[in-house]
Amino acid sequence: MTADPPRPVIAIIVALASERVSVEAGFAGDRMTMLVLKQSGPGRKNAAAAARAVAESGADALVSLGLAGGLEPQLQSGTAVVPVRIILEGGETLATDYGCKKRIVNAIGSELATDEGPLLTANTVLDTPERKCAAAQTTGAVAVDMESAAIAAVAADAGLPAVAIRVVADCAADALPAGIAGWIDSGGHRRIAPVAAAALRPVQWPVLALLARRHRTAQRALKIAAHRLARTGFEFSPAP
Fold first, then answer.
1. Are residues 144 and 129 in contact, defined by beta-carbon separation less than 8 angstroms?
2. Which of 143, 210, 212, 240 is the most buried (most CB within 10 A)?
3. What are residue 39's DSSP bridge partners?
């Protein structure tokens, strides 16, 4: 009687505590693969550090999972962007694992809208429709985050496959509240004081209400994506 081959260890990297809650809820129960979930905090530097840590601990593949901002005007909140390539602001591009990307789209596409267009990893929050439009025109990206390129770069350096799954929260036409980048600390946890201060300004209420609706939709979609992927597994292309 031969033993079953060991299941690959897939490292899932999220930036924010709110993303982690949704992903953990989706991953609850039976899993087809060994999943390691790590919260990095926002930004490329934090994401790279987290990716190196899991790669050095023996991960077989890296996954950037979380939320994104929409750049393509047609993308709605809750759309899962599974890009074939990730773009840095300087123009450098990083490929994701094509076979795994296609299987992910097949796994979640029956329940969620998906898009396979390029994903931009920005250095700062794109907080206005004008900045989002300019980024879309310059790069051709359909959505933006602040971590995926760093994770993909670490994977490439380590000889590991990588893929990104980013669910659109704010849309291309949405303006974000002033100072929103300061609402999250370096570990990915919400800072109460600046959020409360924004909530006390009536001029911000319409923006905050819209953003809250967008994020509820996106977090539900993120949970659904995690639930489907935990049960179908992450099957990456064979190493060359």
1. no
2. 143
3. 14
Contact, 93 vs 87, CB < 8 A?
Answer: yes
- Rounded mean pLDDT of 183-201? 92
Burial class (CB in 10 A: 0-12, 13-18, 19+), 46: buried
CA angle centred on 142, ends 140 and 143, rounded to 5°: 125
Distance separating alpha carbons of residues 190 and 187, to the nearest angstrom: 9
Domain chopping of the chain, boundaries? 9-232
- 62, 148 Cβ separation under 8 angstroms: no
Superfamily of domain 9-232: Nucleoside phosphorylase domain (3.40.50.1580)
Inform me whether the pLDDT recorded for 31 exceeds 70: no
Question: Max alpha carbon distance in the chain (Å)?
Answer: 69
